[in-house]
Design a protein that fits this description.
single chain, 294 residues, alpha/beta, Rossmann fold, Arc Repressor Mutant, subunit A, eight-stranded mixed sheet, three-stranded antiparallel sheet, 11 helices, 40% helix, disordered N terminus, disordered C terminus
């Protein structure tokens, strides 16, 4: 008994070193029921890096499913435990029997491997296809990583207690990726905004870091300062195109709206031409003339 215990403990330590944490059967079943109970015989579920096939085992018998496992011994265990077809090989390179509609599992907690699995999943799935992965929360820790995923996927996440795994000290999430044409993020705050700000030229990042007040106002003021305090709308657009503080697709309208809204900071000096108040020699006179006219 003691020898078996040592071997099992050694295997567990080795799995932890590789970032492999087999999902408890009850947790796999609960996640399947929570997110994939709508599947039927027209679907195909694939579990990459399936290990013993914990997710594979909870897919109802009437839903087609296949596992992929690079370790021949674990692949054999998965076949025995689940009765499903399990392919021995690397998920990123093997050929599946047909196109999956869902890719579900618990990939090793290595960012490079998670990224490779998501790349392959995107190539395999049809539009509307889904991925459900149990992941370490650090997979979503930076704006750049999340917005990179969001360029191809709609993503939703929910927290999972880390102590479903004995000895794990990492916070966990269950992430749902959907291959959508109109993509959205659910459960993520400030990721897109942070990525947008970090992509700005340094001079505009400094403006946002040091100042206070409405973001668009401060950035437009800086855009006008650079050509001397006054510019045509066309020139403002050219200056602002790489310096937009958000990815708003209506950014030109946002500029015009801001210029009109903050009449105490900007003034129109001609058709489609604006100046920072006080920077144009005729700006004050122009505003007073308009006030008298009205």
């Amino acid at each position: 008994m003691s020898i078996v215990h040592v071997e099992n403990e050694s295997d567990a330590n080795r799995q932890r070193e590789l970032g492999q944490y087999p999902t408890p059967s009850w947790a796999a079943e609960a996640l399947y029921e929570r997110h994939f109970s709508d599947l039927d015989s027209n679907d195909l579920v694939a579990e990459p890096a399936c290990g013993e096939g914990r997710f594979l085992a909870v897919v109802p018998a009437f839903v087609p499913a296949v596992g992929v496992e690079i370790d021949p011994n674990k692949a054999a265990q998965a076949r025995l435990l689940t009765g499903r077809h399990v392919i021995t090989g690397d998920f990123c390179g093997v050929e599946l029997p047909s196109q999956p509609t869902v890719i579900l599992g618990n990939p090793p907690f290595r960012l490079d491997l998670i990224d490779r699995f998501l790349d392959r999943a995107h190539g395999l799935l049809p539009d509307g296809g889904r991925v459900g992965f149990l992941l370490p929360a650090y997979a979503f820790q930076t704006a750049g990583r999340v917005t990179g995923y969001a360029s191809r996927w709609s993503i939703a996440q929910e927290m999972i207690p880390r102590n479903i795994f004995c000895g794990l000290k990492l916070p966990l999430v269950f992430a749902l990726f959907r291959k959508d044409r109109r993509r959205k993020l659910i459960g993520f705050a400030l990721y897109q905004e942070t990525a947008d700000v970090q992509s700005l030229p340094r001079v505009y990042r400094d403006v946002l870091a040091q100042g206070s007040g409405p973001v668009w106002l401060r950035v437009i003021e800086k855009a006008l300062e650079r050509p001397g305090g006054e510019a045509d709308l066309t020139d403002i657009y050219v200056e602002m195109e790489p310096a937009r503080p958000t990815g708003n697709r209506w950014w030109k309208e946002k500029i015009r709206q801001t210029l009109r809204r903050y009449a105490d900071r900007f003034t129109a000096t001609g058709k489609g031409r604006y100046a920072i108040r006080g920077r144009h020699p005729f700006a004050t006179e122009h505003v007073l003339h308009r006030a008298v006219a009205f």
